[in-house]
Design brief:
mainly alpha, 7 helices, 93% helix, elongated
């Protein structure tokens, strides 16, 4: 009888222990589920916050881009308008200043030749007194001066002022023609972008950038900004190609 009671008590204790264990497991499961749900909610809130920030940045960037585009378009339109208004005034001014410009070119060429000639004379004088091992370096410097692009260009002008003047005028006319043509194309593209949809604008702007970066257009702009420097660059390129 006593053994049966003990067995029954043991079974009840085991059952109670099992119930407690199951209750603890259920509580742990509820806690984990609550934590996971809280984590998902926080993650969703963070994702929403980041998405909102990204949208704000995107809108700000688009507005800034639109503003910059409008500023650039206004500047380019002013430039193009000035280019279209300048030819007649420039033509009259060029006729008045033609003689002065020709004299300036001749004077500049003469100064270059005189300067380099003095340097060459100094080198020759030094070479006469130099030791044998020093002469090759001096003569190499003399050849470098005599073959410099600037010196050769100036000599050509002094030898044939009329011919070289015509070449320079042709180069200037060609540069003006290229710039005017590209400026007209850019103006047309800018006019199209004003009425273009958001989807249509990127290819138009890409076309505009392509025109602005065209080597012929860049070279023409450089010539109009610095005729002497660009002429020497072109002549150096021709000499390099010839080599």
């Amino acid at each position: 009888m006593r053994a049966a009671e003990e067995e029954e008590a043991r079974l009840r204790a085991a059952e109670e222990e099992e119930l407690k264990k199951k209750a603890a497991e259920e509580e742990e499961a509820r806690r984990i589920a609550a934590e996971e749900e809280e984590g998902r909610m926080k993650a969703a809130e963070e994702a929403a916050r980041l998405a909102e920030q990204e949208e704000v940045r995107r809108r700000a960037a688009e507005e800034e881009k639109e503003t910059q585009l409008e500023v650039v378009q206004e500047q380019e339109q002013r430039i193009i308008q000035n280019l279209s208004e300048e030819p007649e005034a420039l033509e009259e001014q060029e006729e008045e200043d033609e003689d002065d410009e020709e004299d300036e070119d001749y004077t500049e060429a003469s100064q270059i030749v005189d300067r380099v000639s003095v340097q060459i004379a100094e080198i020759l004088a030094a070479a006469q007194k130099a030791a044998k091992k020093e002469k090759p370096a001096l003569l190499a410097k003399k050849r470098e001066l005599e073959s410099s692009i600037e010196y050769v260009d100036a000599l050509r002008y002094l030898e044939d002022p009329e011919g070289q003047r015509q070449i320079r005028q042709n180069m200037e006319s060609e540069a003006l023609q290229i710039v005017d043509q590209v400026a007209a194309q850019i103006a047309d593209i800018l006019a199209q972008t004003k009425t273009a949809s958001k989807k249509e604008k990127p290819p138009l702007l890409a076309r505009k950038r392509h025109l602005e970066e065209d080597p012929g257009y860049v070279s023409a702009l450089r010539y109009l900004e610095d005729p002497t420097g660009e002429r020497l660059r072109r002549r150096a390129g021709e000499d390099a190609d010839g080599d």
